[in-house]
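Budget justification aside, the reviewers requested a transparent look at the raw inputs and outputs of the sequence design task funded under Objective 1. We therefore reproduce one unedited record. The lines immediately below are the structure tokens for a 160-residue chain.
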């Protein structure tokens, strides 16, 4: 199995689970507020299932190999390639878990700060990016646009 196939499988599983989580997360909203998220979640689930079946059946692999000039037996992937793929996937999974547990208002700025720090940006740039995301979510999405956010599993424990 080559690295491209592993990436396809991982992303397909991720988008399938993300669609299920999105559908579950907006189930408490009124009908008008959940119409778009439910539609997007159902499309994600259906498309990931269709793509997953295509991956598992191997449909299109021969044409893709011929177009890319790859031989019939792709080389196995190295641990470095796997590490390169798993870090971004792990980061997004941690972000989604953080949003489910502590909510968008805190999880997204913390994620932005952590990501920028890991990418070796100066601390002040990471803090500025996190503060910008906090102000964007709180000011624009919640206060001005009144976008309903799902309740986190830990509840609303912030005073603002």
């Amino acid at each position: 199995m080559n690295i491209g196939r592993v990436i396809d499988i991982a992303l397909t599983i991720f988008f399938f689970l993300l669609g299920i989580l999105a559908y579950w997360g907006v189930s408490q909203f009124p009908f008008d507020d959940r119409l778009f998220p439910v539609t997007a979640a159902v499309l994600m689930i259906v498309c990931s299932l269709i793509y997953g079946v295509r991956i598992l059946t191997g449909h299109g692999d021969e044409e893709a190999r011929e177009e890319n000039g790859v031989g019939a037996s792709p080389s196995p992937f190295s641990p470095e390639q796997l590490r390169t793929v798993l870090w971004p996937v792990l980061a997004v999974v941690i972000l989604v878990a953080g949003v489910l547990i502590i909510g968008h208002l805190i999880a997204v700025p913390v994620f932005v700060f952590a990501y920028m720090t890991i990418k070796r940006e100066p601390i002040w740039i990471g803090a500025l990016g996190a503060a910008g995301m906090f102000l964007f979510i709180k000011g624009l999405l919640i206060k001005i646009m009144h976008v309903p956010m799902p309740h986190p599993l830990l509840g609303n424990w912030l005073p603002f």
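The radius of gyration is 19 Å. The chain has a mean pLDDT of 80. Computational costs for records of this kind are itemized in the attached budget.
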